[in-house]
Write a structure and sequence with these properties.
2% helix, 174 residues, Methylamine Dehydrogenase, Chain H
């Protein structure tokens, strides 16, 4: 059965494409997940790190210097909405972005929190909680954060939710 490519990234040297794959609409036991590397010139598979993955693989990114490859994986039923972070394996997150300082990675996810992690030891160093609930809606539902990006100068962070709202936050030191 073929998986859907949910995310992909090209290595900084342009030689490798890594795909994050998930076949949805199956039970947790039946779901197929993938993390594979492909030669950018020939299309030949260079590695398959899929074995042992549980939960959907939602995003994959290389750091700007190519030293790190991070990916998001997890199940809201098993991991909960906040998820957990392990160095270079981000659980419960829906997207991630490396900071241009080369020392941090930012994640967003189902808990509507953007988290900053140190690459050196995997420690969480900061979080930004977002509550963008529509005032006209009834109930506690707040949409999942689906995308995060950081400006090349590292001063701005943009995050988007499942309903298409985008928030821009300043990362500049105060």
């Amino acid at each position: 059965m073929k998986q859907w490519v949910r995310s992909l990234d090209i290595s900084p040297d342009g030689k490798l494409v890594v795909t994050a794959e998930h076949l949805p609409h199956l039970t947790e036991k039946e779901a197929e997940n993938g993390l594979r590397g492909w030669d950018a010139q020939t299309g030949e598979m260079k590695f398959d790190a899929s074995k042992g993955l549980t939960g959907g693989v939602t995003a994959v990114r290389f750091s700007d210097d190519g030293k790190y490859l991070a990916f998001c994986v997890g199940s809201i039923d098993r991991d909960g909405p906040a998820g957990k972070v392990f160095l270079l394996t981000v659980r419960g997150a829906t997207d991630l972005a490396f900071h241009p300082d080369g020392k941090h990675v930012f994640t967003c996810g189902r808990d509507r929190v953007v988290k900053a992690w140190q690459l050196s030891d995997g420690a969480q160093v900061h979080e930004i909680s977002l509550s963008l609930q529509d005032k006209g809606k009834q109930g506690p539902f707040t949409p999942t954060l689906h995308a995060v990006s950081i400006a090349p100068d590292g001063k701005l962070l943009a995050v988007a939710d499942a309903e298409g709202r985008v928030v821009i936050c300043s990362l500049a030191a105060k």
